[in-house]
Amino acid sequence: MNKARVKAIALACGASAAGIAGAADLEEFERFSETVKAAPGGLAYLGRDPLKRKNIKNWFPAAGSVLVCAFRYWEPGMDYAAELAKAGEPASYLKRTGRKAHQPELLAAPGAKISRYALCRDYHLTVKEKLAAALEAIKKEFPASEGKSFCDTSPVMEKELARLAGLGFRGKNTLLLSRELGSYLFLGGIALNIELEPDAPIVDSCGACDLCLKACPTGALKAGALDAGLCLSYWTTQSKEKIPPAIAAKTCGYAYGCDLCQEACPLNKK
Fold it and tell me: What is the SS3 assignment for 216?
């Protein structure tokens, strides 16, 4: 199987970038495990099937390599205010698009904001459709191939696999950052039963830039680590508990998700 051809198929099926990672134990798993121990209750699901996250072979035993894809959902020059207005009344929009809002009082406030990623069709559906098309095309061109796709809900360490596949580096906001595409990215991929040569990880970092840390109003970001218990996105999209008043007072208008650290990132302004 030709690695370049597999990546080309992914791009033709809608990926903004594609790379290959090996199917092996992930060193990042140890740090992930420690982070999960300190995570709030609403993220308890991250602790399920831990060994599957350590090595994708534990999730898909036939895995020989991993095709990892990034899908850009927001580009510089797009008008956030216009897109938000197009969505209409926030609570109604979220209900209409099948999203659960856990802090209705924030949505009812004048000028309530919705994160950019939610101002489009549910990415789980969109990305899985594109990955399904890519897998079908790969199997058609390489009949001996089999695969299993993932996007957010599977026990797969997508950001680390994306880093290893050369799609970007982990920023101080904990997200995958790409010099070409920024960080407004959905990640997904396909574990393939064929061994392909892995791409080289990108050696890069945020350097001295700490604009995202300064932009976070609750101090949830700590130079590459996230305190989910302080994260606005966690409280507005995942926690079923009422948001603490001290955090609710610092939402900067965000009622579903939060883009503040990404808005501050210079890589999203090119």
Answer: coil
Determine contact, residues 233/258, Cβ cutoff 8 Å.
Answer: yes
| Per-position DSSP letters for 156-172, written without gaps between them | --HHHHHHHTTS-EE-T
Q: State the Cα–Cα distance between residues 167 and 108, nearest whole angstrom.
A: 38
Q: What is the pLDDT of residue 45?
A: 86
User: One of 152, 204, 210, 259 is an active-site residue; which one?
Assistant: 152
pLDDT of residue 149: 98
Q: Which tops the pLDDT comparison, 223 or 60?
A: 60
Whole-number pLDDT of residue 270: 72
CA atoms within 13 A on the CB side of 231: 23
Within 8 A by CB and 6+ apart from 89, the residues are none
Structure confidence at residue 224 (pLDDT): 79
Helix (H) or strand (E) holding 83: helix 80-87
Q: How many CB atoms lie within 10 A of CB 39?
A: 17
d(CA 165, CA 22): 8
Measured CA to CA, the distance from residue 143 to residue 115 in angstroms comes to 41
Average pLDDT over all residues of the chain:
95
More confident residue, 131 or 34: 131
Distance between CA atoms of residues 104 and 175, nearest Å: 27
**CA pair distance 230, 219, nearest whole angstrom:** 7
204 flagged as catalytic: no
Q: What is the pLDDT of residue 146?
A: 97
Range of weakest confidence among 81-85, 86-90, 266-270 = 266-270
First to last CA, the chain: 36
Cα R_g (the chain), whole angstroms: 19
For residue 250, give the DSSP letter. T
β 65-72/17-22 pair status: antiparallel
